[in-house]
Specification:
single chain, 329 residues, alpha/beta, Peroxisomal Thiolase, Chain A, domain 1, 5-stranded mixed sheet, 13 strands, 25% strand
Length: 329
């Protein structure tokens, strides 16, 4: 990274209270706990209440991140909310959050890069600080995927959940903070994963959808799986190389939590042990842009990162998109 050093000053997470277990899903679609656990590693996921939207989850996670950072909301120069399930298209979820937090000096925008959205948000936030444009930036991943999930489709409804994670970024001392970022996209793979298709300018109403297309999240699971396994390895290697490091330097990898088999494949290729990888997909399932900040917040809560550690974040998802970051904690 060019410019002044930028680090993470505080992390926070919020997951809704309601738990949807594999046993609950057995009552809803033709599936079973054994299939879900062996194919995905997921045991349960959180579901937002009817009153909770993305900004509500984002608010709870952000409050905690600001408290942990010891930064008042008025010191934020920018708020970025990465989400594929915004409250509404306009105003942005980031603007709704800005008002609720009382972050009156902050610019605010939403960012759309599906499951890679949080790392895209970090790269934006960190570069704004490195350049001197802002001092403190709040980056949030917040999703209410239950609103775009079809609970009659066993291929998808077992995978997704709701939640939010947030970090406060700010200037840090020399020798600490972000070392490298790598972002990428391959729009030719866009049809492999879709969600929230209704309400935009292409298909304003459900009746506008072409035959065979649903308003819910849909993916070609096998193709996305292959892409994910490939990108997890190559992205981790290349973002580490940009930082002048190798896989042997990793103290903690915080990967996107989509499927335990994808994480295990990456661990094998990168020769990482369980204590070098943050895993919570069993408790939350896939929460798109929120998985990495929630996992990072839990790693901090559990004391799994200490000053000077090399931490690697890697995400991949719809678009297709991917994003990686390396930092010295
Ligand atoms: O965050 C965004 C990125 N998304 C991902 O990373 C997702 C990547 N893909 C995956 O994680 C996996 O492909 C899935 C978990 C989605 C699916 O696992 P799979 O091992 O690829 O299973 P499959 O789709 O190939 O299905 C195997 C069988 C099928 O039956 P047949 O056709 O072999 O008779 C499915 O109908 O399993 C069946 N099946 C189920 N059975 C019980 C599919 N879903 C279920 C289910 N319960 N919930």
């Amino acid at each position: 990274m060019i410019g002044r050093p930028v680090g993470v000053h505080g992390t926070g997470k919020y997951v809704p209270e309601r738990i949807l277990t594999n046993q609950d899903l057995e009552q809803m679609v033709e599936t079973n706990d054994e299939w879900i656990v062996t194919r995905t590693g997921i045991k349960e996921r959180r579901i937002a209440s009817e009153q909770e939207a993305a900004s509500d989850l984002a608010y709870e996670a952000s409050r905690i991140a600001l408290e942990n950072a010891g930064i008042g909301p008025e010191r934020l120069g920018l708020i970025i909310v990465s989400t594929m399930t915004p409250d509404v298209a306009c105003p942005s979820t980031a603007c709704i959050l800005q008002e609720r937090l009382g972050a009156k000096n902050a610019a605010a925008f939403d960012l759309s890069a599906a499951c890679s959205g949080f790392v895209y948000g970090l790269a934006n936030g960190a570069n704004f600080i490195a350049s001197g444009m802002y001092d403190y930036v709040l980056v949030v991943g917040s999703e209410v995927l239950s609103r775009v999930t079809d609970y009659t489709d066993r291929n998808t409804c077992i995978l997704f959940g709701d939640g939010a994670g947030a970090v406060v970024l700010g200037p840090t001392e020399e020798g600490r903070g972000f070392l490298s970022f790598e972002l990428g996209a391959d729009g030719s793979g866009g049809s492999l994963l879709r969600g929230g298709c209704v309400g935009g300018s292409r298909y304003p109403k459900e009746s506008d959808l072409p035959e065979g297309m649903t308003p819910h999240i849909w993916q070609n699971g096998r193709e996305v799986f292959k892409f994910a396994v490939r990108i997890m390895e190559t992205l981790t290697e290349s973002v580490l190389a940009k930082a002048g490091k190798t896989k042997r330097d990793i103290d903690l990898l915080v990967p996107h939590q989509a499927n335990i088999r994808i994480i295990h494949a990456a661990m094998e290729k990168l020769e990482l042990s369980e204590d070098q990888v943050m895993i919570n997909v069993d408790r939350y399932g896939n929460i798109s842009a929120a998985t990495i900040p929630i996992a990072l917040a839990e790693a901090v809560e559990e004391g799994r990162v200490k000053k000077g550690d090399t931490v690697v974040l890697v995400g991949f998802g719809g678009g297709l998109t991917w994003g990686g970051a390396v930092l010295t904690w």
